[in-house]
What we know:
The structure holds two protein chains of two kinds. Chain A has one domain (3-127): Up-down Bundle (3 helical TM bundles of succinate and fumarate reductases), CATH 1.20.1300.10. The termini of chain A are far apart. Chain A is built from four helices and no strands. Chain A is elongated. Chain A is mostly helical. In chain B, helix 3 runs antiparallel to helix 4. Chain B is elongated.
Amino acid sequence: MSAPALNAPKTARSGGRTNYEMWSWIFMRVSGIVLVFLVLGHLLIMNILDGGVQRINFAFVAGRWSSPFWQVWDLLQLWLAMLHGANGLRTIINDYSERDQTRFWLKAALAVATVFTIALGTLVIFTFDPNIS
Amino acid sequence: MPKASVGTLYRGHEGMWTWVAHRITGVAVFFFLLVHVLDTALVRVSPNAYDEVIATYKTPIVNLMEVGLVGAVLFHALNGIRIILVDFWSRGPRLQKQMTWAIMAIWLVLMIPGAYFMLIHTVESLFGSTS
Lengths: 133, 131
């Protein structure tokens, strides 16, 4: 009796997609660790220490953004949190939307909201004017 | 795509519920973030516009929602660390259940004083200061 013929081995999926998903997986972990410090620090300062939100107003924001340290903190936090969140939502859309059309439009809306929010937040940090009337 | 999920092994245990909670808290925090960038952007409009909107954050009901937000972010952060440990630490997969109970304990220990300091002003303004 001869050995059964084996199918040719399947080739690994080539092209961008596999690699993209791997980088997205790594990005979630790396950005996640950085965000633990940035966001929990932000929440501790803004919501818990020294009266929390009760003391926040325009002057408080102006005081913080007079320091490059907090500008960089907020800028990094904005970009990482938005990209981390958008990538998470992309995964969820892929998981639950069954029709191609639905998936496409949900991701398009997500992309628009993400680009808009990152651009707006970046603009505000860079063009903040403490003497605005 | 097959829809039937009869007989799956992955049901109803710590691993599934933390996965569900990770998604729910992640989505909730993302939508808050969109709103939060918009409200902060009002500093480019005028100090008044910003202060007026921030005043709504200081009301009792929104103050309570802030505790929910911090609780959601803290869970997402702790569970994210657990996921990383499961992925990269050699003993992580074997200890994932213990780590689930550990992050719950850490969450509770941090949230009790956190909620106290977040709510103390609201409680005092509603029921009068004891000091």
